Amino acid sequence: MKHVAGFLSATFALLGLSASAVAAEAGAGSNLQAGGLKPPEAVQSDASPAKASQTEAQLDRADKEDSGRGLEFVWLNAEVGPEYLGLETFKAGGLVDAKLARSKQAGMMYGAGLGLRLLVFTFGARFRLGNFSDYQLWTLNGEVGMHIPLGRIEPYFTLGGGYASLGSFDTAKIGSNLKGAHGLDVRGGFGVDVYLTNTFSVGGNLTGDLLFLGRSGTPNSVSATASPDQQNAAAVYARDGSSIGAGATLSAVLGLHF
Asked: Which end of the chain is more exposed for a tag (fewer CB within 10 A), N or C?
């Protein structure tokens, strides 16, 4: 029993010394924590002042290169330019008397458009009046467009369609029997806007039109003293007429954007 008591006393003395050593080590700032784990060290940012300065320079350059125009919601523009028109480019169905009126003519076009913009897409309406030597052609179309913002320069594509009317004929050349022709216009185009300010732009536009026109016959009596041309015109316009034509327009455009 004496040996056993001595052994137990020595064991407890060693345990006491071990506990004191562990406590002293923990008190000195060891890595031991509750459960034997220590929270990870705070993550140190590796962003040096040089890198931060480089990032700021890139942001400043991007800000200068940005157009700064912000979002656009409403647009309107006016345009003017030469237009070439062929009334019977794809189909000649007696729309006009070929002896009195030239089916292919060049003239001036005047137009205006307005609408809304949603990001890079535009939606609106456009009116155009083509003034030719023997007649006038006007169109009223719905129009959609897709724009490609490149800072102050903005290319775009458009597609539209609507109503077309041929009238205001020169009676001295065509005669008074032709009352008018109506139909459908389909238009596609490409243009570029250059923004001089956030709200004002100048640009150019090239469009092509496909025209489906028709008219009803208008029988009229012809006097005995009428010329052969007048008699021929009366015979032509007494019957229904139609055509499929085409046109091309190059216009200068002034625009406002809000």
From this structure: N
Please enumerate in sequence order all residues whose Cβ is within 8 A of that of 138, keeping only pairs 6 or more positions apart, or say none: 127, 128, 129, 130, 164, 165, 167
CA distance 58 to 92: 62
Q: Alpha-carbon distance 126 to 161, whole Å?
A: 10
- From start to end of the chain, where are the E strands? 74-93, 104-118, 121-131, 136-147, 153-167, 181-195, 200-215, 241-257
3-state secondary structure of 48: coil
CATH numbers and ranges of domains, the chain: 74-257 (2.40.160.20)
Residue type, 91: K
Q: How far apart are CA 213 and CA 88, in angstroms?
A: 9
Amino acid, single-letter form, for residue 225: T
Looking at 121-243, list the stretches that DSSP marks H as alpha helix, in order from N- to C-terminal side.
171-174, 228-237
Average pLDDT of adjacent 10-residue blocks, the chain of 258 residues: 45 44 45 47 54 66 56 97 96 84 92 97 98 94 97 97 90 67 97 97 98 88 68 80 96 97
